[in-house]
Design a protein that fits this description.
homotetramer; 335 residues; alpha/beta; Rossmann fold; Dihydrodipicolinate Reductase, domain 2; 2 domains; seven-stranded mixed beta sheet; 13 strands; N-acetyl-gamma-glutamyl-phosphate reductase activity (chains A, B, C, D); N-acetyl-gamma-glutamyl-phosphate reductase (chains A, B, C, D); EC 1.2.1.38 (chains A, B, C, D)
Amino acid sequence: MIRAAILGASGYVGGELMRLIAGHPAIEVGVAFGASNAGQKVTAVHPHLAIAYPGAALAAWDPGLLNGCDLILAALPHGETQRLADQLLAPGIPFVDLGADFRLNSAAEFERWYGEPHSRPDLLETFTYGLPEFFRDEISHSKRVAAPGCYPTAASLALRPLVEAGGIDRQGIIVDAASGVSGAGRAASAATHFCAVDGNYRAYGLINHRHTAEMEMVSGASVLFTPHLMAASRGILATCYARATGPCDPLAILREAYAGEKFVHVGETPPETKWATGSNAAFLTARHDERTGTVLALAAIDNLGKGAAGQMIQCANLMLGLDEGAGLSNMGVYP
Amino acid sequence: MIRAAILGASGYVGGELMRLIAGHPAIEVGVAFGASNAGQKVTAVHPHLAIAYPGAALAAWDPGLLNGCDLILAALPHGETQRLADQLLAPGIPFVDLGADFRLNSAAEFERWYGEPHSRPDLLETFTYGLPEFFRDEISHSKRVAAPGCYPTAASLALRPLVEAGGIDRQGIIVDAASGVSGAGRAASAATHFCAVDGNYRAYGLINHRHTAEMEMVSGASVLFTPHLMAASRGILATCYARATGPCDPLAILREAYAGEKFVHVGETPPETKWATGSNAAFLTARHDERTGTVLALAAIDNLGKGAAGQMIQCANLMLGLDEGAGLSNMGVYP
Amino acid sequence: MIRAAILGASGYVGGELMRLIAGHPAIEVGVAFGASNAGQKVTAVHPHLAIAYPGAALAAWDPGLLNGCDLILAALPHGETQRLADQLLAPGIPFVDLGADFRLNSAAEFERWYGEPHSRPDLLETFTYGLPEFFRDEISHSKRVAAPGCYPTAASLALRPLVEAGGIDRQGIIVDAASGVSGAGRAASAATHFCAVDGNYRAYGLINHRHTAEMEMVSGASVLFTPHLMAASRGILATCYARATGPCDPLAILREAYAGEKFVHVGETPPETKWATGSNAAFLTARHDERTGTVLALAAIDNLGKGAAGQMIQCANLMLGLDEGAGLSNMGVYP
Amino acid sequence: MIRAAILGASGYVGGELMRLIAGHPAIEVGVAFGASNAGQKVTAVHPHLAIAYPGAALAAWDPGLLNGCDLILAALPHGETQRLADQLLAPGIPFVDLGADFRLNSAAEFERWYGEPHSRPDLLETFTYGLPEFFRDEISHSKRVAAPGCYPTAASLALRPLVEAGGIDRQGIIVDAASGVSGAGRAASAATHFCAVDGNYRAYGLINHRHTAEMEMVSGASVLFTPHLMAASRGILATCYARATGPCDPLAILREAYAGEKFVHVGETPPETKWATGSNAAFLTARHDERTGTVLALAAIDNLGKGAAGQMIQCANLMLGLDEGAGLSNMGVYP
């Protein structure tokens, strides 16, 4: 068995990684680092995993514990991977990072959107962007992968094939998206209080959400991105608008782009976030509105699945030469 | 007391009308028609009103019962008001209709979006569009008012002042909106099943939702409208995108437009649907994104409040010479 | 107008008090103390009240500001009223306290359930228990009222008439209740995180929840109480089980007990928490199961309404000689 | 591969069976009967399964299609299995029935609780009750299994070991339980409308819910059962109350009873329904309240998992000599 080291194991993504790995035929948890809960049992932090991890405990960060591990999966707050980079990369173990630190290929773009200088610009080019449907070969040959953010995964799946096919204008794209609350992490705050979210819908991060940079990089287009918080634990729906460059069948373009993909479904029906819950699946549709000259493209994923832990495992499978879908489901838990 | 006849009293809007009227200082329920529940007690259909309407029952439609009424409030399925028009209008009683039948000023537009001819085009011009913040005087002097749809109320409040101020392009406007499930009415269906909505988010009516026509009429601009269904009983958030015509301060435009309005609040913070729950309030904000040349304007309302029953009462107050806010709250029930 | 001083104005109960008072015909807010948010505008803390309180700000605690006030409404954390008692009681202003400090009539019981000595046992007898349906006269003649907890309000409304009528055994009563999350207050914690509550149901405080003492005092019976947290912002349902003493018609007993009450409805249909949302209403039903010799009695309220702010206003109305229902609704906002 | 015939494939349990089977190492879907949706593609009815069942369609009932199948899994409305019994049993294929038809061992009890005579009392004794933790051997040697109802699964897991250990009185047991809406099935109705459930909590079936009979049969005790509907798609929590017969450590009894079980976890923390979502796991705790002489025992499951489809697969695995946990997860999808 491949032994995985998990960083950020006490968060939602960490818990999802542990759930997926417990069902993975070739990977097991070697060590689970959970800074804020170090020393506690996994059961205390993730009671839904109590049967699968009866005795396991979370460890404090100690790079020595990476010895004997064959894979590193990091789900840390933004900035942490830069700080720990030397320790994480030293052993040369295949490494999948979910943080934003090494996703962008430009330190200037990072600084522009994150409001702080990048401390390790020298490493940016050594990471591959971990969206397998677009960069499968690169990921397979890489030892360092930066897994995409949840919103950019959804938006890029919807937009990139349309941009590449020349069907939509690269300027003036709008991504209007809704996310479940787990995307905001496990930290308790006024914004994640049940009563603040239940039955509510609101936009946030108007104009300047950091994921904009990533969407623009991957889709190759200029994007105005508006995230919304919805009353759900999981799920992202990206509703994307672009000007059509001319007659265009966006649904056909998406169908062709994702033919043979085992985690992407393109259909006529507008996708629903709940179809993807707990899975690594993405559901897409598209329309051309001739009246206004607009192309709509919609993508639904589970932000913790294809938008985080699922995609990390998908990348790891590729990096390790395993079946790309090992340990992953393409079916949501519904209803 | 002014005696109101309510049509469609067994639906959600009907129940909200009865709740508002029970707390109204000058209006009382004269007769409540509830076709599908005629003969049943109000308590059986609206148990939350059991104390306020202990003995009342719902009546079958009978135009003779309009005698002695001073106000008609109709919340009927689309098409019904056309069919009943002669009976409803004959007595010359002030009439507020929530249906879509008499909102548009063009029979051609009605046919285009509703897919059927208008049976009473002769009456279209006799109705005033019931959005008090824009047409207060006309409503005050009218005996026939067509209250706006829920989505158009939100979108128009956000967009019309910006269009009128010349701050945004009249072409290429996008309205991306989310609605609570009560907007779909009380009828049980696969789409309104709890399990289909709980924790879910999805778009519907892509490209051709009927409310588009109304938004275009009121805002004076070309609109692509995408409604979404969110996991909430009440609430609408309209997130609107338009190209700026030049330097522009949309927040200042909205603040000026709604200064002195007792049901519209313009603020810096992105509005939340839940702030408006149970009230007639609307909460707005706006931004100018210079990077992409886009203006964002957002409006949150309760679809059953400012988007339906509340606005009907607001119109009726104006028509009857009462205080415009009588019986209405500008505060949501929160959390 | 009567000027009310509110303590704890930045919490959920505080916000509800301000909402109710804004619609009250005879009371207005004199000063709103909000310790943790002192200096902030009401709008910032309670954006749903932005139109009603456009310029108001929250004050830091200063007993001098009670001058000129005619009513004190305190919604403070447990223990605070004991600490502030001398300052609060000195001016002799009618005072309604929602805290647990002065509800119980025995310092020993307080210490037993709250795990700490009572610092002002001398004051216990000077407070009247604020459940108007049982103690209307006492409240009317009192200047110090301790408003009941939310769970005890629901359980006592269901149980006390049955105990008093001798229909149920005073031993072995079980109260199994569910509460919305606002009952846990506005503080952000792991337990109130949206993702921890959404779609979830769990018991807490097994065997030793503090509200047990209050239930036993008011119902005059021995109670085992199990609270549950449900996925709702508001609402409490108490499902109570007791052994029947013999043939018994509990529904008739409740109907008689609450005949003429304007905020209590007794009906055949099992009550739903949502019927009461935003109101001061309570909905009850009961059954006698002859097969097992058990009486069931159920009560649904809004924990912030009849379970907190609504009942405080109801008590204040009585104390001030106003109409008991002034500023209160007996209809929930539904759906 | 073992080929399974699924009856009731268009319902929630049917969809869950198809999801589990798609991930099962030794079972595949042979034919999926979906009466109300016969002829439709699986994708249309279960869009979350679109990738796993791209071309499959639902069949109309035709006993001939059982040829070539090695397993029958029926999730039909109550009464249907009686009606189809001869056709279903004729081929002698291992059969797991989720309906209530063959769970009780007494036709009289069936008639008493279901209000109609049992049409096939001759078959009652030929079925084994499918709760593996209690009847593992019988199930392994049976070709006909009646899988338990969702509520009885939860209640029996909590109660039976305590009854058998003599720790609790067999009289006067109360089961107060809450269920997610999927337990009411996929049919749209006023009671399952999103707006009727969202933010709501209510009891139903007071005194006479049919599952009572099953609970009494399995636990060997007299039970008063009160089900509640909660605002969740999935999940059941049973909170059970019984009189202690004397000093008693119910937690120790449960721990011993379920030692070695791979789907049952007994812990100190009160279990939460969400821990089990999408899995076959059950989470239990218990307490002895010496003050009132009461034992509490709580069990949380996913009503579609351990309460339906998961348990059906667990039984099938036993009947077919497969690993008992094949295709099943003991970890919920959380949050």
